[in-house]
Amino acid sequence: MGLFKDLLFNLIFILITTLACQLFVIDRLRYVLTKNCKWLVTCIAGFQILFCIAFSYRETNGFIFDLRLIPVILGGFYGGPITSLLLFIIVLLTRLPFGGNGIWVTFFCTAGITLIVCFLHKLYQSQNTRKKLFIATSLATAYSLSVFILKNILTDQPINMAYAWIYTGTLIASMLIVTYLIEIVRQNEILREAVLKSEKSEVVSQLAASLSHEVRNPLTVTRGFLQMLKDPMLDQGKKSFYLDTAIEELDRAELIIKEYLSFSKPQTENTSTFCIRMEIVKALELLKPYANNFSVKIQTVLDGDLVIMGEASKFQQCLLNIIKNSIEAMPNGGNICIRAIESGAFASVHIKDTGIGMTPAQISRLGEPYFSTKQDKGTGLGMVVVYKVIQEMGGSIETKSALQKGTEFTLRLPLGKWRSGQFRHN
Ligand code: ADP
Ligand code: MG
Fold first, then answer.
1. C-alpha 127, offset from chain centre
2. Residue 409 pLDDT level (bands cut at 50, 70, 90)
3. Under 8 Å between Cβ of 253 and 215
4. 379 CA from centroid of ligand 2 (Å)
């Protein structure tokens, strides 16, 4: 019973630290850490190993039992070979002070498992949950068997079957639970990313409609001028004016298409510092045709170099979603005012419209998946994406709204770097 109790204590600790790390640390640090967080996996798994060995079940003959194998295997699978090697060293260093014959069992069995994990870690990551569970529990079974066989060889004592069953059973069940939980949280994260992507393709197709309209205008103007150029009586001055205007209009059409394409193509994840003003200007360039369709005028007052940390493409997606909502809130035209200013250690982005506004009940439902008042024209996912991205960037959102008066969204984001300068864009 003592063995079972100590193993359960190990399991609870592993579960709490793994979940806490996945839910809070990785989610929040994603914009601070670069691509992967191997060192974080190493730290957490290393800490779990220390804890498991410190609170292990100790036999009188120099053997100790605990669930250290779980962080050794899963840490290695998610962190890679270097993590595996470091975890192996941590196991040896932590186990060493306890002495006894068990050290040799630890050494050989953990070395064997570490080698297999290094060898299989790529394969493991490409498997589905069921196969991952199978691989992890097979390794746990192999480890447990080899521990008891080696123990038997080293001590010449018969295997205590009750112990062997309790240890193996608890180890396998714990391995199943921890692996399954890690996978559930990871899949949840993948799903949230998918929502972000599907919302983006929705915006892409909605913008495409107004884009074709916007491109047709400069093309019609160009056609008109080219037609006028056919006139043989035209003097040189007029000719070059017509040509210049035609070229200008074509450039405008090209710019509209270029901006649209750069937004619609899939973006790679890239966390870096970026300038808020640049992203607002780019978003407005994209939304101009849409705003024109709704007779909406957009005014901006943007502080020069407000630099923040995050993924520029996702931040731009947030701006698009918020401003697009503002435009849609003014079906008969109106004004949007966008201000980006420094306030203390934060950058504040205010997006204010003169649209239909929201009731307090509607405000409280913002960010709830599929909440939309636009019937079949809305997805109810735009604000979900906005809240998720801003939260991941360590920022916050404030909403003020009055029915038939308008709405103001304020995004507050921690500043990365600040240089002075003012820029106006109308
Ligand atoms: P969708 O735009 O597809 O409906 P969103 O998540 O972007 O979904 O927005 C959810 C809802 O929030 C909208 O349907 C609308 O009722 C409300 N909303 C968002 N922004 C504004 C705004 N600026 N003015 C009025 N209502 C808004
Ligand atoms: Mg929307």
1. 21
2. very high
3. yes
4. 7
> Cβ of 301: how many Cβ atoms within 10 Å?
15
Q: Which of the listed residues 319, 376, 383 should we mutate to test ligand 1's pocket, taking the one with most ligand atoms within 8 A of CB?
A: 383
Å from CA of 298 to ligand 1 middle: 18
Nearest CA to ligand 1 atom 23: 326
C-alpha–C-alpha distance, residues 347 and 412, integer Å: 6
Instruction: Determine the Cα–Cα distance for residues 166 and 287; give it in Å rounded to an integer.
Output: 64
Q: Tell me the whole-structure pTM to 2 decimals.
A: 0.57
What are the pLDDT digits (tens) for 303-330? 878 999 888 888 988 999 999 999 999 9
Give the residue whose CA is nearest to atom 13 of ligand 1. 372
Q: How far is CA 43 from CA 39, 178, 420, in A?
A: 6, 17, 40
- 205 CA to centre of ligand 1 in angstroms: 18
Name 397's bridge partners. 411
What average pLDDT does range 289-300 have in this prediction?
A: 91
Q: Which two tokens stand for residue 137?
A: 């529990």
